[in-house]
Amino acid sequence: MVKAILHKNDLKKGLYLIPTPIGNLGDISFRAIEILKNSDFILCEDTRVSKKLLDKFEIKTNLISNHKFNENKNLSKVVNFLKENKLVSLISDAGTPGISDPGAVLINECIKQDISIIPLPGPSAVTTAVSASGFDEKYLFYGFFPEKEKLIVEELEKFSNHNFCIVFFISPKKINKIIPYLKTYFKDRKILICREISKYYEEYLRSDIKNLKLFENEPKGELTIVISEKQIDKKTSQGISESDKNSINKMLNKLSTKEITNIIAQYSNVSKKEIYEYCVKIKNEK
């Protein structure tokens, strides 16, 4: 068992954002345990879920239920605690608070009132999934999609125009509804579906999206999805289009050759080398 090595007086007063394990309870950090032990109050989503973690590490701190339905009601009380120099920690059921979890309301109020916010690094389904994907390191994180199917489709269509990896969360009830749209808008990309990350039955399903099949049975637990960057076949390049050439000419006096190359390459089916060489050629002609 981890014994206390810090004293409350050694800790900076303010709001601590404490990541908690997304599966395996052993993933919590020593520092997180120490701060939770020394906190005056811990704000949590579900006291029943958080109590399992706190009991595991013999943390006796007072719990306050703080979820999306009552965080506004709690706000003045918690801010008063912080102004009285109480040490308050914010946790979610799993992962980093404020990332697709409650927390933004309190964090923004602390920013407004110049109350210290101290975030700890720690477990995150997003970075865990991206690290295992083997895809490009540049990614966009969305979180959970809207409830209405029409809005989900609009968002997917919008993302399909970006040449970045895309990470999002989805409930097991919705995954089969969204797969046909993934095959429509991302058919030439790859996908990683992460289930039960860091738990005993964790599973990482990899596939080309065009070959993706519906789940026969509803998977257990929330899913973290990573879609790869665009799979561009350089052999199909037809050269730099006239519209891209016009864009390049407009940017030449404002941006560096490297910056222009990166911008055009995001949506063009042309290699960076070809774009770069064209930029250099045009610059030399001026």
Model description:
The chain has 286 residues and is of the alpha/beta class. The chain has three domains: 112 residues, Cobalt-precorrin-4 Transmethylase, domain 1 (3-Layer(aba) Sandwich), CATH 3.40.1010; 103 residues, Tetrapyrrole methylase, C-terminal domain (Methyltransferase, Cobalt-precorrin-4 Transmethylase, Domain 2), CATH 3.30.950; 52 residues. The chain is 37% helix and 16% strand. It is built from ten helices and ten strands. The strands form two sheets. A five-stranded parallel sheet has the order 3-2-4-1-5, sandwiched between helices. Strand 8 and strand 9 form a beta hairpin. Helix 9 crosses helix 10. The N and C termini lie far apart (71 Å).
Short descriptors:
single chain; 286 residues; alpha/beta; Cobalt-precorrin-4 Transmethylase, domain 1; Methyltransferase, Cobalt-precorrin-4 Transmethylase, Domain 2; five-stranded mixed beta sheet; 37% helix
H-E string: EHEHEHEHEHEHEHEEEHHH
Mean pLDDT: 90
Tell me the name of the CATH homologous superfamily of the largest domain: Tetrapyrrole methylase, N-terminal domain
Over the alpha carbons, how many angstroms does the gyration radius reach? Answer: 24 Å
